[in-house]
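Hi F.,

I've been meaning to write this up properly since the lab meeting, where we talked about keeping a consistent format for the predictions we share between groups. The idea is simple: the sequence comes first, exactly as it goes in, then the structure tokens exactly as they come out, then a line or two of notes. No screenshots and no reformatting. I'm using this chain as the first example so we have something concrete to point to.
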Amino acid sequence: MQRRSLPSLCLGLMATTLATTLAAPAFAQENWPAKPVTIVVPFPAGGMTDLLARRIARDMQAELKQPFVVDNRAGASGQIGTEIVARANPDGYTLLVSATHHVINPAIRPKLPYNASKDFTNIALLATTPNVLVVNNKVPANNLPEFLAYAKKQTEGLSYGSSSIGGATHMSGELLRLMTKVPMTHIPYKGASPALADLLGGQIPALFHDVMTMAPYVKDGKVKAIGVTSARRSEALPNVPTIAEQGVPGYEATTWIGFYGPANLPRALVEKLNHAAVKSMNSAEAKTYLTQNGTSPGALNAEQFGSFVQAELDKWKRVAIEAKVKVD
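Output, unedited:
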């Protein structure tokens, strides 16, 4: 029997170990998910972001035969939950569903504990919804040209409300101010309810808010819709023109919800997750639900979504700098 030399034996063991090490991630990907998956939502339960996260969790659990658990980690305008995912292992077991805050926070909050461009893998666009500029019935304006003309006549600029500083509705107003050069003053509220109450009560003349919430008030004649912020008209308010078509070409500011993982998530997992999420959002049931709420399902692949996210990061950075919006 021929005896192998010690160096040969060591080389053989090293080769076997290396092959096993290289094969392990591939094996893990092929067998994913082998245990429960956590989807972190950095906002309280009950909002649209949470509802869509629970919808895809339900559908992916049914398709992939493992529990998908939604974990609400609210606080600091989404920073707390988002950081959890930024620091997670890229194994597909800790994921993130977040709203437009994900691309606006980096523009207005210089001390974020993560890098939105580098610390995440972009998986899928779940849904988009326009905001709408509405005014109380005392304001003598029924369309955008009339609104802008009225705003120019106000000695201290026209005030508009939104649910918070740095949210998509606030930035919708800042973008309009920058593109039209019309003086407007933002009044931030702690939530949508007090902002809407003040609009209805006549304490503020204008408000940027999501179409889903405002559509019933517009249809009942309690407020007047001036224009929607999306590039196309909303199915929830089909007779309300876009801001862009009323003399502000290129204006677009939507609220949207995205699906992410930690940086360096394996490509095979990204494609698997993207397929499952897009399938969930485009089911007949989901489309009906979304359409009724003035929302459109996403249909981008992961690469397209990544390009979309980067474009949004760049856009809101420019707007924040020009509008001087900053939160310490």
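Notes:
The domain at 130-246 is CATH 3.40.190.10 (D-Maltodextrin-Binding Protein; domain 2).
The CA atoms of residues 55 and 314 lie 30 Å apart.

If this format works for you, I'll send the rest the same way.

G.
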